[in-house]
Amino acid sequence: MLDAVVPAAPMNPRSDAEALAAVRRHYPDAVTTDDAVHRLLDVVERECGLQATQLLLADSICSDDVNSIEYPERARRMLGPFKLGGLDGYPHAGVTGMGAFAAHVPDGGGVVIYHAPHVGVSRDGGFGLILRPGQHARSGCCGAARAALAKLEADTLVAQAPSDLDYQQGTIEQVFLAARERILGAPEPLKAATEVMYEAIAARIDMLVARTTFPARWAILFGGILVNGDADMGSFSVARRVVARHLETGEERDLLEMMRG
Ligand SMILES: [Zn+2]
Known about the structure:
Number of strands: 11
Bound molecules: zinc ion
Radius of gyration: 18 Å
Strand content: 15-25%
Order of helices and strands: EHEHEHEHEEEEHHHHEEEH
Mean pLDDT: 93
Distance between the termini: 38 Å
């Protein structure tokens, strides 16, 4: 996106604990995404009786290449991922995408649907900026969210259907416009916009799941904020909901506290 680059501070060889501390200044509950996946797989095995290899993963996360570069290695124990997301994680794959994903579940297995907008936190604690691999200056993350927020702040957005030429960005703009006062009235508008995006994504995921038949025992919905760090920091997870739904009995288990425990 068209964010101005900001000169980066010199890189220091610091520990992972210091990188996590930088993220926790903004999100006190953050853990590394590797930790989050590890905890999730442990809890799902215990509560649902399913091993990682019996789980098909879908993710609804931003197309940004940093999300591929920083994809948690431990998530690769599951099958997938099926990609549901477009810019800033909105599930543009829609009903057909969710249906295709559902058709690929291993026999007797389950589905994990991870959904999250993302935001950058740099090693020096800067919000909405990261140092990307091979670059010497920090740039915006999520660039799409920042571009939409810049238009909201400039008061240039109008309520309208997104154009075919820039449909995904137009969707983000409309989501932000509908929450204009909440975002612009917040002490950190990008952080508030990221929460607004989380809620819009979660609501759409629920809508898509409700319209889909999964030939599976369990559907696990894991929603949160995905935090990208500088190139040497990795990525981090802020969980907002972790729910397991038994698809035959309708039983629903809240796994969030177990994930934190
Ligand atoms: Zn993004």
